[in-house]
TrEMBL record:
Part of the tripartite ATP-independent periplasmic (TRAP) transport system. The lineage of its organism: Bacteria, Pseudomonadati, Pseudomonadota, Gammaproteobacteria, Chromatiales. It comes from the Bacteria. Residues 23-155 form the Tripartite ATP-independent periplasmic transporters DctQ component domain. Belongs to the TRAP transporter small permease family. The complex comprises the extracytoplasmic solute receptor protein and the two transmembrane proteins. It is found in: Cell inner membrane. The chain crosses the membrane at residues 12-32, 47-66, 87-110, 130-154. Its main location: membrane. This is TRAP transporter small permease protein. It is a multi-pass membrane protein. Keywords: Cell inner membrane, Cell membrane, Membrane, Transmembrane, Transmembrane helix, Transport. InterPro entries: DctQ, TRAP_DctQ.
Length: 166
């Protein structure tokens, strides 16, 4: 589990860095083409919207993995360590169920539907299903990271940044 989580983290980080660089380049090109050249590019808005969706979804998976997502621990911080671990286990299990049911299940159904309907993006001319694929992919990553966390919590540990249990 350690090597897989660490490898997946590295791939996800590098992919997000590349996507961020791409969106900066696309938005800069839009500004240059609109205000300097006087002829705005027709594809940059759709490209930046697609990149933003992928960055948001994959970034949410990485934020969940590293514990950087929004969390309120006002109530749970008053519990004993044993109860904190139990609550963490329950909440992590709920996150895994949500990711599998809504993101993988519902997002997968959306991708399948847009493939069947052969929906194409207006400016790019690619299938919309490829754009929506970010939803079930991020759901799978969140579920995987959640399952790794559940294994560590079951053992009485927490998941470390290196991918192993404490």
């Amino acid at each position: 589990m350690n090597k897989t989580v660490f490898w997946l983290d590295e791939v996800l980080k590098r992919l997000l860095i590349g996507l961020m660089a791409a969106i900066v380049g696309v938005v800069c090109w839009q500004v240059v083409s609109r205000f300097i050249l006087g002829e705005p590019s027709s594809m940059t808005e759709e490209i930046s919207r697609t990149l933003l969706l992928w960055i948001g979804m994959l970034g949410a998976a990485l934020a969940y993995r590293t514990g950087q997502h929004l969390g309120l621990d006002i109530v749970t911080s008053k519990f004993s360590p044993q109860w904190q671990r139990r609550v963490a286990f329950l909440l992590t299990a709920l996150v895994v169920l949500f990711a599998l049911a809504v993101m993988v299940g519902g997002g997968g159904a959306l991708v399948q539907l847009t493939f069947e309907l052969n929906q194409m993006s207006a400016a790019l001319g690619i299938r919309v299903a490829w754009i929506y694929l970010a939803i079930p992919l991020a759901g799978f990553l969140i579920a995987f990271y959640g399952l790794c966390q559940l294994i560590c919590l079951w053992r009485g540990d927490t998941l470390l940044p290196t991918g192993g249990c404490e």
